[in-house]
Amino acid sequence: MDTNFQPAIERGPRGKYRQHSLEFKRTLVEMAMQSGVSVARLAREHGVNANQVFSWRKLYEAGQLAGGTAAQGNELLSVVVTTPAQAPAAEPSPTGIITLEIGRVRLRIEGQANAATLAQVLELVLR
To answer: Between the CA of residue 125 and those of 78, 86, 103, 121, what are the distances in Å?
Structure first.
C-alpha cells in the first residue's frame, strides 16, 4: 500500500495512552477490510497494535464507530412467525413389527411396511 498517513495523536488525561481520531480509525479499518491486506502489517506501518485494528473493525461493522455502517450482507430482515395451518386429522397409519426367519436369514421390518418393497424382498429371500 502506498497510502501512508500520520495519526493525530493526543495524550489523554490518563497519561501515555494515545487517542486516535475517528477519521484515522475509520480510514485504517477501511484499508484493513480490503481483500488481500495483512492487518498486522497495516497496523505496524501505522504504529498501532493489530488487535486494536480488529477491535475498531468490530465497532465499525456494528455501526458504533461514528460514521461506520453495518457490513453489507449483514442487514436485519423483518421476520413474521405464523402458526402453520392444521392439517385435517388423518387416520393413524398402522405400525408394527414383521419378523421373517428362513434358515439363517432373519428379516425384521418395523413401522409401516411399503408393500412394493416388501414384495421385492420376499421374492428374493424365497428363491
So the answer is: 57, 42, 10, 6
